[in-house]
Amino acid sequence: MTYEDVLRIVELVKSTRFSEFRLKVGEIEVHLRRTNGAAPQQEPAAPPVAVAIEPGTAAPARGSERQFPPDVVLVRSPMVGTFYRAAAPDAAPFVQVGQHVEPDTTVCIIEVMKLMNSIPADTRGVVSEFLVENGAYVEYAQALMVIRPDPEAG
Predict the structure, then answer these.
(1) Domains, the chain, ranges and CATH?
(2) 3-class DSSP assignment, residue 62
């Protein structure tokens, strides 16, 4: 089931008088509920892929707080899911520590409900550190890696 399939299901249910709808296909489950005439809600919905990057400090992870120099960029997870450095277990990683990246360079993927979401660097610079192990579960806005920006990359 693709994201587009889910959107079609939502539109179909909107056009009916159902107050609740559940569908499970394999490991994917869609639950829609209409309350007080409001539009149905989809649970869970994968957010659009967009990477928030911030210079400075990382968000606290499980009670620990790590400080980063102000001149680095943290690539953060735009969603909850599983972090992978490569497209397949036997494939080469998208990027390595020390590698130069451009804003559109794919640096990793986050798997959500069997959908692979490419995460771009969104900045020009050099990958200096990975903060997450390959195959690890990541939270929304969790810092994934550190990029040291090129001086001319405002």
Answers:
(1) 3-43 (no CATH), 53-149 (2.40.50.100)
(2) coil
